[in-house]
């Protein structure tokens, strides 16, 4: 079986794959060749793929493709692809890191850590002058948009701060809110909104949502940048309606250098690092090998997704 590895792995992980898949498999690692045309040729012959090749390559999908293991949880750019192959994403592997990043950003905003970091760089001591502007996460009311793995992890962490947490999801029976109308009705006394929505919901957080949020509340996004009307968000931040925003994702990435978000003092940007962790690639390889074993034994694979539906 011909396996194309698009994920850029270090030599120890390549060795692990070679050892685990030595029998009856031919592996090609993209990083071993600098010629992109040659990489595309190997992709075209693949029966199995690990990683996220360029979308344009799928204009002529591999005719023998049987299984594709994405190395990400999100797959917005591939949504709508029709492949005669099974596809899996990384499931909840990135959920906890994403949740810790966004809650860490929220705490940084509330406790002035972002401001203190800038003061340190300038060797400027403000001390007591900053104290009246610091907030706390403890016992706040929060709404988490989405009840998937990231949303659930965010809720669990917030509940550790004794926050009152409501979750919004259209069809999930575990969610507290199931419609936009229910969500809007809760915003007038909500302190924090955390967005974990997938890219299938374009501009769900629009000007109406942002203006319905309680004055002085905080908005955070660790879902997809396309779910937020960024122009409207910038307007309400400039107007002082929201006390701040924590953004792991933005509508355009990398964020353009002329974006006002860089300069707004009440914005924490974590540059889509949410899912990052020291063993990130280890998890990708382990799940790939796990699903390869499932396929070999004709079992259901973990984290299977439907690209046509987008989930």
Short characterization:
The protein has 311 residues and is of the alpha/beta class. The chain is 31% helix and 14% strand. Helix 1 (11-20) runs parallel beside helix 9 and helix 3 crosses helix 5.
Can you tell me about this structure?
- With 311 residues, the protein is an alpha/beta fold.
- The chain has two domains: 2-93 and 277-305, NAD(P)-binding Rossmann-like Domain (Rossmann fold, 3-Layer(aba) Sandwich), CATH 3.40.50.720; 95-269, NAD(P)-binding Rossmann-like Domain (Rossmann fold), CATH 3.40.50.
- Helix 1 (11-20) packs parallel to helix 9 (280-296) and helix 3 packs across helix 5 (149-160).
- The strands form two sheets. A six-stranded mixed sheet has the order 2-1-3-4-5-12, sandwiched between helices. It has a six-stranded parallel sheet with strand order 7-6-8-9-10-11, sandwiched between helices.
- The radius of gyration is 22 Å and the shape is elongated.
- The chain contains nine helices and twelve strands.
- Strand 9, helix 8 (230-238) and strand 10 (244-247) form a beta-alpha-beta unit.
- The two termini are 28 Å apart.
